[in-house]
Design a protein that fits this description.
The protein is mainly α. It contains 8 helices and no strands. The longest helix has 23 residues.
């Protein structure tokens, strides 16, 4: 699973994630969509890392909340419901989620779930508005939810490194890197 994520990082092209370009179709298009944008990868991996860092029940709750709310946001996008600042919300998700990991933030589970859900709406809306015209919406949604789940699992696997002191330091540094990447997304540098 980690190898799939590393491969996705190596071949990801952020230009495809938010301009509606890329592969057309159903499930495969939906599956590839989150893997073709660094902003999506960073935020989704951060959700898994933060969940693992927080432990039970967050290790499973956050990666479940995100795709459920993301699917809702996707439906809003498909229906054409406007959501201002989608790209800003996505960039902020990497900043905030990265900072939660970097700062070892331990809010109550409901606060963490709310933060994750708030950003999931933006990610879902981006996916929904970029649904190819000829695509099967249900298959597309299934693909992007599955890819999101795999990115969350990758984050969980990385987050489990916090069981060791050196792993905790490395993961907090990775959280800082994710936050910095979010700043790059927000400013248009990346």
């Amino acid at each position: 699973m980690a190898a799939v994520s590393i491969l996705a990082f190596a071949v990801a092209s952020p230009a495809f994630a938010h301009e509606g370009a890329g592969v057309a179709g159903g499930f495969s298009s939906g599956f590839m969509h989150p893997l073709l944008g660094w902003d999506h990868i960073a935020a989704m991996v951060a959700v898994g890392i933060w969940g693992a860092f927080l432990g039970l029940p967050a290790i499973w709750a956050l990666p479940v909340v995100f795709p459920i709310v993301m699917a809702f946001g996707g439906a809003l996008g498909i229906l054409g419901v406007p959501l201002p600042g989608v790209e800003i919300g996505i960039a902020l998700s990497a900043i905030v989620l990265g900072l939660m990991v970097a700062l070892a933030a331990r809010p109550p589970i409901w606060v963490a779930a709310f933060v994750v859900a708030a950003f999931a709406i933006f990610h879902g809306h981006a996916h929904g508005t970029e649904l190819p015209a000829a695509a099967d919406g249900v298959a597309f949604a299934g693909g992007f939810v599955l890819a999101t789940g795999l990115l969350h699992l990758t984050g969980i696997a990385l987050g489990l490194l916090t069981k060791w002191d050196v792993g905790r330091i490395a993961i907090r540094a990775l959280g800082g890197g994710i936050a910095m990447a979010g700043v790059a997304f927000l400013t248009g540098v990346a």
